[in-house]
Amino acid sequence: MAKFKRSSKPPQAKHQSHKTGSQFDKRSRLDSHNPDRQKTTHAKFPLVATIADKVSQLASLLDARSGFRLSIIMAGMMLADDRRVAAAWFASAGVQDDWETIVYRCRGGEVTRQYKTFLATSRLTGGVIRAVIVKFDNGGWATYFCTKAEVSVRDILETIADRWVIEEFFHDTKEVWGAGQQQVRNVWSNIGCWHLNMWMYTLVEMCSWESSQEELSDRSDRPWDNPDRRPSHADKRRSISHKMLQNQFNVVLPDTPEKQQLQSLIDHLIRLAA
Q: 88: buried, middle or exposed (CB in 10 Å: 19+, 13-18, 0-12)?
């Protein structure tokens, strides 16, 4: 009998056994009913003939709660042609928007928006992240992520809403007040200018807090702009500047029959100047 001869090559590496389930296992999601979810029961253009029968047999081997999706996805794969991303399969199959609804705190009030969430991996963080896609009322959407996968979607969105206020502050302080562009000679003068810019931002926001939108922003001379857009910090600064100039001109404006005409002309010039 021939003797067994051991190979000189190192043994093949084996995967470690996982005692816990995969973090990407979505079967537990099927146990909770979501009334806001739009369920797609069949493809826009279903499979036909023999392939429809074969796919139906494959689907019978899957969980009945999700197996019906197999024929829908494969129908989309048949029609997606050279578009090979999964999103193209779903679009070709006519899958309905699978968005969930959430109510969370944003800008001092509660808003209701639609979202999607999933776990992913990122080279930026070197581990698992939770991604959240949010759809806004105007049809736009934004994607956020958190490096702690166990954090809830509501906590992520509320943290981002609070953090975005800081981004708006830096944008307005630099764009409206020109922070960092004062060209002074030493570091202490720069610190003083930064403080002045931040104080001006704070005072303008505070003084405009109780003012109405019509009082703060007049976009009649800008037909391309959205008249319903909330007043920006530049609008609030411009409103105060207009009042300063109007008060000064009204003091020296003579009480003549042409006063109303002169007042309209001055208002027009003020809008051009400030």
A: middle
